[in-house]
Amino acid sequence: MTRQELIDLIGMKAREILPGLDDHAFAGTDRLVDLGANSVDRAEIAMLVQEALSLSVPRVELFGPKNIGELADLFLKKLDAA
Amino acid sequence: MSLVGIEALNVFGGTAFLDVAELARYRKLDTTRFENLLMKEKAVALPYEDPVTFGVNAAKPIVDALPQAAKDRIELLITCTESGIDFGKSISTYIHQQLGLNRNCRLFELKQACYSGTAGFQMAVNFILANTSPGAKALVVATDISRFMVSEAGDGVSEDWSFAEPSGGAGAVALLVSDRPHAFQVDVGANGYYGYEVMDTCRPMPDSEAGDTDLSLLSYLDCCENAYLEYAKRVSNANYRDTFQYLTFHTPFGGMVKGAHRTMMRKMVQAKTAEIEEDFQRRVMPGLKYCQRVGNIMGATSFLSLASTIDQGQFSAPRRLGCFSYGSGCCSEFYSGVVTSEGQARQRQFGIEQQLNQRYRLTIEEYEAIIRASSAVRFGVRNVVPDVGFIGEAYQSARGKGRLFLREIKEFHREYEWLS
Fold it and tell me: Which residues does B273 contact at the CB level (< 8 Å), separation at least 6?
């Protein structure tokens, strides 16, 4: 899976949780918080992405990324290690 | 079968409260996001209140209702708090004194952030189960206040500061634990515990908090899942949807519990959105009622949710409650017990909801004044006489209710008085 595919996947899951993003073109520099996601939303988006990737890592290991690109990089690392 | 559990529990949800929607407007928070918090009011500690007065005011009605002989059988008093007033001397000593308990009693305090109340409760349960002093009772008092909400952390925390201030409350829950579990009969051995080191939220300095809301939420969700899975390993045929007629949660704010419940229902029983919402309203909401009116009271919060469920639930037949407790740092536990209609009737005599209804409503100006005035009673103060004329209307509103207040700190020793 490429970085861009992961960013698209995160964007797709963000759309499921957050309203009004149907026409938004997601980029790696987007921050979920700026798109209206609170802590609960962000945790849920991360979980949906995990499920889509059939990944199972503790949620606390997904803490740290400051934008969608960094989150995608972290997921890529977890996929490599899986 | 060994009978053990909560004989009686009572809540003290403060003398004064603030409408948090008003606070949100005043702080210019995004009101649509704010609604997701699912919080309504929070109790605010006055400068002449402290974790001792909160704890005593919660425990007094329970102790007063006991015959002298039963009161004298309280042989263990554990205070559970992260709002300690001394690194050595425990709050339990003051509470023991104010309640006039038997001196043949173990007095100590424990902490593990918001898990502390559960830790104290489980230790008390095991003291009763061990039967080393047959017929003895234990009093567990979880008491926490957030007097100064100061953000000390970096990046993450500032974004969600909006969650912290409106949800940080003040309050105490007292539990009388014995072999007469009228209020909540524990399912003995049905405990799933789960803990590990994580730096999510903490109090590394007196009177202030540090931490990261996001990390704390992620850790809470990890624990919610893993504590329950351990419970299910130990309790054959446990099913998240059917075994428990009610679920109580440690409630930092209602929205977090809603998210955790949604996650658990999806993961454990593959529930869909419509079912999850109905289930939340039916099994979880009764426990959120009081939490929405007191705010996060740390070590006492999971029992605030329990008290709320017992008062607000339907118990035409005995019902099993699944209880989840989480404390940052972290440790967590999922356990269960049974509540009956008789237990609910006994509990309602404490009039917890009426007590919440009768609190003094603070204006924003008064709330801001409290934040400024509270430094007078910060950790380590050697001598002070708090002014009970400060927001005197709140103080006077407690008249006739048999409440304890802090009168003076004299050479570090705290002196209290009952307001008649």
Answer: none
Residue B405's beta-bridge partner residues?
B417
Secondary-structure breakdown of chain A: helix, strand, coil percentages, each rounded to the nearest 5: 55, 0, 45
Under DSSP, is residue B140 helix (H, G, I), strand (E, B) or coil? strand
Give A34 to chain B, closest Cα distance, Å. Answer: 10
B393 is an active site residue: no
CB contact under 8 A, A43 and B218: yes
Sign of the torsion angle spanned by Cα atoms B231, B237, B242, B243: negative
- Return the biggest CA–CA distance within chain B: 60
The answer to whether B205 touches B152, Cβ cutoff 8 Å, is: yes
CA-CA distance, B272 to B263, in Å (whole number)? 11
Q: What is the pLDDT of residues B306-350, one digit of tens each?
A: 999 999 999 999 999 999 999 999 999 999 999 999 999 999 999
pLDDT value, residue B2: 85
Gap between the Cα atoms of B329 and B326, Å rounded: 9
Two tokens at B314? 């339907």
Cβ count near B402 (within 10 Å): 13
Which residue's entry shows tokens 């997601």? Answer: A26
B362 secondary structure, DSSP code: P
Position B280: which residue type?
A: F
Which ipTM value was assigned to this complex? Answer: 0.90
Catalytic residue among B224, B250, B331, B366: B250
Predicted TM-score (pTM) of the model is 0.95
For residue B224, what are its two tokens?
């919610």
Give the C-alpha separation, B246 to B285, whole Å: 9
Q: Measured between alpha carbons, how far is B229 from B247 in angstroms, rounded to an integer?
A: 15
3-state helix, strand, coil in chain B (%, to 5): 40, 25, 30
Strand duo B184-195 + B319-327: pairing:
unpaired
* Amino acid letter, residue B260: A
From A36, A42, A47, residue closest to B214, measured CB to CB: A42
